[in-house]
Write a structure and sequence with these properties.
The protein has 54 residues and is mostly helical. Helices cover 50% and strands 0% of the residues. It contains one helix and no strands. The model has no long low-confidence stretch (mean pLDDT 81). This is YtzI protein. It comes from Neobacillus driksii.
Length: 54
């Protein structure tokens, strides 16, 4: 009975340690954002949906 308890506690500690390591590496990752001038999804003010609306 104690063997099962010890093995399960070791598994829990390993899983928790891996989760903490993975999360800390994810927070260290540097995200970048493209400048607005290079964004192909932005349209000019002459967009057909916005013309002639009053």
């Amino acid at each position: 009975m104690y063997t099962i308890l010890v093995v399960s506690v070791i598994i829990i500690i390993v899983v928790l340690l891996l989760a903490v390591i993975t999360t800390s590496k994810a927070y260290k990752f540097k995200h970048t954002v493209d400048p607005l001038d290079d964004n192909p999804y932005l349209q000019n003010e002459n967009h057909p949906d916005t013309e002639n609306k009053q």
